[in-house]
Design goal:
41% helix; 5 strands; 20% strand; 157 residues; alpha+beta
């Protein structure tokens, strides 16, 4: 958000205004500054109200399971991330993710920054299930979410 005084004179508006001795120009700048102050005060009030709304909004956990294709190397990678979204119906507002402190699930066979490779698909699916259970059985979304099918009753032989 820029103010009109800075737009007229630049960042060092006060030093520039002190060099100006045109009374009408200085009065206009004073009027602009007063209007800008009003806009800033309204902005502060609206943001303060929205902070209270955001604090009272319930957040819902999601696990994102993505399949990526590196066209240069022709490798398939899988990435798993947990994040929170506000539990509201407005789709545009919901699109703003609030990532938790865990950006991607660590591949136990590699370093934390490495994704799951294509031949580790089953391990990635299991990791997505475990992460979903860790966050209260949250929904698994993403372009690879259909790979994580619900586990049916296991038959022991």
């Amino acid at each position: 958000m820029t103010c009109r005084v800075e737009e007229s004179y630049g960042v060092d508006a006060l030093a520039t205004a002190r060099k100006d001795y045109d009374i009408s120009s200085l009065e206009r700048d004073l009027l602009y500054a007063a209007e800008d102050l009003g806009v800033i005060q309204r902005y502060i009030e609206q943001i303060s109200k929205h902070i209270e709304t955001a604090r009272s909004t319930r957040l819902k956990w999601y696990v994102e399971f993505r399949r990526e294709h590196n066209h240069a190397t022709k490798h398939i990678n899988y990435r798993i991330a947990a994040f929170q979204l506000p539990d509201i119906t407005d789709a545009e507002t919901r699109a703003r993710r609030m990532y938790a402190s865990i950006p991607y699930a660590a591949n136990p066979k590699g370093s934390p920054s490495n994704p799951f490779l294509g031949n580790e698909k089953r391990l990635a699916i299991e990791c997505a299930r475990e992460m979903s259970e860790k966050y209260g059985g949250c929904e698994i979304i993403g372009n690879a979410a259909e790979l994580v099918k619900p586990v049916k009753g296991v038959i022991v032989l």
